[in-house]
Write a structure and sequence with these properties.
With about 110 residues, this protein is an alpha+beta fold. The protein has three helices and four strands, in the order E-H-E-E-H-H-E. The longest helix has about 35 residues. It is elongated and about 55 Å long.
C-alpha cells in the first residue's frame, strides 16, 4: 500500500518514518509467531490443507518525490483492507504518529496498492 504525505519538512518526516518502519518491523516479528500458531491451529481443525505463505520480514520503503514523501507499506491483503475501509484508519494512524513526533502534516492520502 502506498501513502502520500504532505508536510513542512520532508527530510525530518523521512527520518521519523525510519523510526516508524523499525517499530513496525519489530512488531511484525512478534505478530508473525502468533500468526503461525493460529494458522497451525486452524489447519489442524480444517479438512483442507492450508498453506499460507508469510514473509519472514517486512520491508518498508520511503522516499521524497515532487515535494511529497511517499511510504510503501507491504500488506498481505490490501484489497481486503480497502473494502473494509481500513485505509482511512491507516492514514489517520500514520498522520497521528508523525504529528506526535512534532511534524506539521497537511495530509496523508492512500494512493494505491
Amino acid at each position: 500500500m502506498m501513502f502520500e504525505i504532505q508536510g513542512e519538512d520532508n527530510q525530518k518526516i523521512l527520518d521519523s518514518l525510519k523510526e516508524f518502519q523499525s517499530l513496525a518491523e519489530s512488531e511484525y516479528k512478534i505478530e508473525l509467531e502468533k500468526a503461525k500458531e493460529k494458522i497451525k491451529k486452524i489447519s489442524f481443525l480444517s479438512p483442507v490443507i492450508m498453506k499460507v505463505p508469510l514473509p519472514d520480514e517486512m520491508i518498508f520503503f520511503s522516499w521524497e518525490e515532487n515535494g511529497m514523501v511517499f511510504l510503501r507499506m507491504p500488506v498481505y491483503t490490501p484489497k481486503i483492507l480497502k473494502i473494509m475501509g481500513k485505509t482511512k484508519v491507516l492514514e489517520n494512524n500514520l498522520k497521528l504518529f508523525l504529528e506526535h513526533k512534532g511534524h506539521k502534516i497537511k495530509s496523508v492520502k492512500y494512493r494505491g496498492d
